[in-house]
Amino acid sequence: MRFPFALSAKIAGHIIKHKVRKTPRFAMVLQLEPLHTCNLTCTGCGRIREYSTSLKDMVPLEKCLAVAAECEAPMVSICGGEPLIYPKIEELVAGLREQGRIIYICTNGVFMRKKMRDYLATVYSPEMEPKLQELVKQQLVTEKEADQIRNADAAAKSKVVIRPSQWMYWNVHVDGLEFTHDLIVEREGVFKECVAAIKMAKILGYQTATNTTVYKETDVQELEDMFKFLSSLDVDGHTISPGYDYDAAKKDMVKRLGKDPKEFFLTRDMTRQKFAKIEDWGKLFTIFGTPVYQEFLAGKRELTCTAWAIPTYNIKGWKAPCYLMTDGHYDGYQEMLSKVKWENYGVVNGKARDSRCEHCMVHCGYDPSGALGTNYQRGDNWKNFKYNFGAKPKPFPATAELTQRAFNGVSIGKGHLAEAKAAINSPRAAMNGAQSVFQRREEAHAGDGNGNGSCGSGDTSQRDQLLAKIAAAKKD
Ligand code: SF4
Ligand code: SF4
User: Fold this and answer.
1) Which residue has its alpha carbon closest to ligand 1 atom 4?
2) What count of other Cβ atoms lies within 10 Å of the Cβ of residue 1?
């Protein structure tokens, strides 16, 4: 089966229950942001710019659990910021499991191995020695760390930890192969760490997923190579969504930089070009989401936005209307459902009800539309059923060549980030305004509060510029 039966059945049951009750709007996935603090400063990240990143500003554990219970979404995506920085992340995962939720921990991967060592310390026994030796052999755990696991004290042994479960996925942010990914996250070694964390997770029996945002300059061939590589690691599923920017950012671009927004933003037409092969990818790789949403991305049909089905809760409350746009925050999910004028958002039959929605095709607005039967066409239910309950694509064979293609950053020399920055600061690049990619990041961290978008899909103009430079640097 493409996805575990229990999970698919739970989601299908949730939809059927609400259809029978004729509930007009209900939640499918809660995007829970317990904090916005992050250990990385990815280019274009909206979250670390829009919200406070102070550790003082966190959603208390009890509130996190209460909002999950309130909206009743079968799936909870714990994002941020970096959720593994949240001091009560283990308790949060345990509490959500007690509520019977399917959990995705959306992480940049940097702290995953630490969390898995914590888990190992609680379950270690001599019978686990072969597994520990395997982790050491693959350099996923050092000898010193292995000893710490073996000799864990009572406090370490009794910690609440994140355990492997078919109900929980590590959902690792990967925006390309090594060169591209490390440039976007603005730190070398992060791609390597993500791969190590995924390998360790697989050895320990965790479920793993990846999430990728596609930008104007994203190289489609690289995306395919990335999926092949991740599939060779036996990653259990992938979320892929177009990056998106909206009106405010476009106006800012015209006003501040004198640039034509079309040069930078992923329009609907461009998205459809980038995702032209999404249905083929869906056959080869375990892409999350419905085939109906894939048809929408490939330009074969229209869907109506159902942003209320993937609500976001963060330190300010229920964020409306969607994960990307902020027109207000509400105290309760039902309050948000009743007060927001949903009919004013989205694109219907190609016409934007709100100009900011014009080019949006993001998964948090349209993926649930495919599952909920919005714009239903004959055969959709069978298509969705076949996709979710059908055979899982086989892992792509791991080859030395594929690994070499994945780790394409190391070939550049001493430090490819430094090299890329130097390239971006070259006179030619400066003429193109590329150095502002890094300058604006500094400005944003000074607290301008003007950021927008989401983790991994913020100011796409910055990322598009950066990706254009990457493409140029690769050619040189
Ligand atoms: S995109 Fe995610 S990982 Fe990167 S800085 Fe933003 S919150 Fe952190
Ligand atoms: S179309 Fe996109 S930007 Fe507009 S409300 Fe829906 S998800 Fe948000």
Assistant:
1) 42
2) 11
Closest ligand 1 atom to 39 CA:
8
Is residue 39 in contact with ligand 1, taking CB distance under 6 Å? no
Distance 68 CA to ligand 1 centre (A): 23
Rounded to whole angstroms, the Cα distance separating 175 from 185 reads 9
**Which residues fall within 8 angstroms of residue 183, CB to CB, at 6 or more apart?**
43, 416, 417, 420, 466, 470
Q: Which residue's CA is minimally distant from atom 3 of ligand 2? A: 357
Residue whose CB lies within 8 A of the most ligand 2 atoms, among 241, 336, 353, 360, for a mutation test? 360
Ligand nearest to the CA of residue 343, numbered in listed order: 2
H or E element, residue 48: helix 47-50
Which residue has the least CA distance to atom 3 on ligand 1? Answer: 108
Q: Encode the chain (476 residues) as per-residue pLDDT tens digits.
A: 888 888 989 999 999 999 999 999 999 999 999 999 999 988 777 777 778 778 789 999 999 999 999 999 999 999 989 999 999 999 999 999 999 999 999 999 999 999 999 999 999 999 999 999 999 999 999 999 999 999 999 999 999 999 999 999 999 999 999 988 998 888 889 999 999 999 999 999 999 999 998 888 789 999 999 999 999 999 999 999 888 766 555 655 566 667 665 665 678 899 999 999 999 999 999 999 899 999 999 999 999 999 999 999 999 999 999 988 899 999 999 999 999 999 999 988 778 999 889 889 999 999 999 888 888 899 998 998 888 888 899 999 999 999 999 998 754 444 445 555 555 544 444 334 333 333 333 333 333 332 233 355 555 666 777 777 777 766 66
35 CB less than 6 Å from ligand 1? no
Alpha-carbon gap, residue 98 to 314, rounded angstroms: 21
Is-contact 191 174, C-beta < 8 A? yes
Which of 185, 211, 445 is the best mutation target for the ligand 1 pocket, counting ligand atoms within 8 Å of the beta carbon and taking the most?
Answer: 185
pTM for the predicted model, two decimal places = 0.87
The SS3 call for residue 31 is strand
